[in-house]
Recover the amino acids of this structure.
């Protein structure tokens, strides 16, 4: 039996949308059980705090628990690998950060490709860094520090957290851009750097901005410059390093990614909910009080951002011939 052309076209159009119906229904039902957000660092740190803030928001909005799974080790590579090997169903997520973009080049034996094996969900924030000093350190500005280093090659020590972290990479970029010969002293964490700087055991450091804000405001430490493209709202009187070294920019970042091939309907749902969090005054206040900068990008924009960060730090690692510890 022949169908009239108009009826045939109507049936064909209906058939074309049928495959999308189960996907949309699955996205509407998501999540169907608790969701794990994997974090590559111990509990209590800045990145862990961001994860818990987002996890609580998503739990409240989506009706299932979003719980934090801390898996420190190998500069967050252990956590990243656990996520890329997880089922791509939206029930395992990863709080990615700038270290993951660095690790793509720093480690040549990774069993995964972070950019290829993850699905960008939503950017969350940038983490401004700061170049700071003990009050007894004679140079008072970035320009004076560079002049001092050039006049005393190989004699200036700068403290940073471990290789591959945002502050350590900022230090490497600073060394290359300023063309100076300095010695980096690596610590296990920002907190140890701050302790030794307060005690005068080391005089200059690159570090995350939030641990040092109270000490800078109290006059116990002195900020020479922030590493971000814009001044910090928490330290508005501190100049940018870019004011002295044109084009200099180095910031950490955080965002949620999922295993590759996670259904786009689920990814889009998470993207919308996280962006809603970043528009909420209470969430914004919590992040900005810690010295963080909100970063809202489209999913495509977030993917491009990760690719650009990977390329940028890959160039620095190769130019400085940096090897993992």
């Amino acid at each position: 039996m022949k169908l009239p052309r108009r009826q045939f076209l109507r049936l064909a159009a209906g058939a074309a949308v049928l495959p999308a119906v189960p996907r949309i229904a699955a996205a509407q039902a998501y999540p169907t059980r608790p969701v794990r957000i994997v974090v590559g660092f111990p509990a209590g740190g800045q990145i862990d705090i961001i994860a818990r803030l987002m996890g609580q928001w998503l739990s409240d909005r989506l009706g299932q628990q979003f719980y934090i799974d801390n898996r420190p080790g190998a500069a967050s590579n252990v956590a990243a690998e656990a996520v890329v090997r997880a089922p791509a169903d939206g029930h395992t997520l990863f709080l990615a950060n700038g270290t993951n973009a660095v690790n793509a080049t720093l480690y040549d034996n990774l069993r995964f490709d972070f950019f290829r094996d993850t699905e960008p969900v939503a950017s969350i924030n940038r983490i401004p860094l700061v170049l700071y000093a003990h009050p007894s350190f004679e140079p008072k500005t970035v320009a004076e520090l560079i002049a001092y280093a050039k006049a005393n090659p190989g004699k200036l020590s700068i403290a940073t957290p471990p290789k591959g972290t945002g502050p350590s990479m900022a230090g490497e970029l600073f060394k290359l851009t300023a063309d100076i010969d300095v010695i980096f002293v690596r610590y296990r964490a920002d907190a140890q750097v701050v302790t030794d700087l307060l005690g005068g055991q080391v005089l200059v450091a690159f570090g995350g901005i939030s641990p040092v804000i109270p000490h800078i405001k109290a006059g116990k430490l002195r900020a020479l410059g922030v590493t971000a493209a814009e001044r910090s709202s928490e330290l508005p009187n501190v100049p940018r390093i870019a004011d002295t070294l044109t084009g200099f920019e180095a910031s950490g970042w955080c965002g949620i990614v999922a295993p590759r091939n996670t259904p786009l309907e689920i990814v889009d749902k998470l993207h919308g909910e996280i962006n809603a969090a970043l528009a909420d005054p209470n969430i914004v206040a919590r992040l900005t009080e810690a010295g963080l900068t909100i970063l809202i990008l489209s999913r495509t924009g977030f993917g491009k951002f990760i690719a650009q960060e990977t390329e940028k730090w890959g160039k620095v690692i190769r130019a400085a011939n940096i090897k993992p510890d």
